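step 4 of 6: structure.
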Amino acid sequence: MTNNGQSDDTIIIKVLKGDQSAFALLVEKYQIYVFSLVLRFTENREDAEEISQDVFVKAYRSLADFRGESKFSTWLFTITRTTCLSFLRKKKLDTVSLDNERAGIQIENRESGFHANIVEQKSRHAMLNEAISMLGIDDAQVLNLFYKGDQTLEEIGKIMRLEPNTVKVKLHRARQRLKDKMEKYFAREVREIHTD
Amino acid sequence: MEQEMEKMIWEYIDGLCSPSVKEMVSRHLAEDPEWKMKYNELKTIHHLLQNEELEMPSLRFTKNVMEEIARYQVAPATRNYVNKNIIRGITAFFLIMIGGLFIYFIGQIHWSSSPSNHMFPSSPDAGKMNWNKLLNNSYINILMGISAMLGLVLIDRYMRAKKNEQLTGTDSKLNS
């Protein structure tokens, strides 16, 4: 992974030597990943932006503790998860059911009518995004880290404090649940995708 | 059966299966239309997830972060300000306490020789021990209390160190 021709490690060394502006390169590079991960926890752009900012501030302040034993992204996503969980605790949101499905309210809304035409018009991206948002936070996070965060099962295990085998099972189940959601709520779009 | 098939196909798609499973799945895909259909279905989801568009924060995001961190400095590494001598001192104190207690207990025991058993050295005569005197001694209780407290402190430190190690040395700082 490089940024403007510089590896993360090179940028980190610069920052640790006092070049604060070099940190902007890391922010530019990872903001989209951190923000997307945080959005899975909050589903509110304002909160997500505030938390993401907090993540980068914490990463900056703790940068001397990054020993390079893992990828910088793994370290950063660990901070992201910890910060999100703290945020949820502070806000007294639904922390009990992190593993449960968040879809309850959404499904009720969906089944109570607003569904039909709006959903049909959605792009594949929006459809996928909505299907993922119906999953539990952990499921959404595993999918995000594996597919977009460029993290291995071992690295996801570090971030989520799980054994790699548990992550493997979680990933499998998350995809299974995603498939079920897509077939249940976006059957037509799924059929279209398959016939393409 | 279908779940097992899906599991194997996912592992095949991810490239995480063993060579033997890989060969078996390849064979099924070539020969069995049901496997082929399921593979195409899962591969579609795989591609969708790979090409998922991520959400962008606002355009000012980097600027906001840089303005925020301008007020801070990088904190010194945790490992630099945790004084190992203090931890060693606590450990030594704890061990001395345990040792002292052990010696005190040994000193309170009335040893008696057993003429019927010459194979073993003399054993303590538990019946003659004054357990009430031992356990109701306020010094002993205080020492035991301190020892228990120190033990808990050491366990706590050990757990924290382990946790820090797992989280690449960041978590304890973030949670504080």
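step 5 of 6: annotate
 - The first helix of chain B runs from residue 2 to 14.
 - DSSP finds nine helices and two strands in chain B.
step 6 of 6: archive
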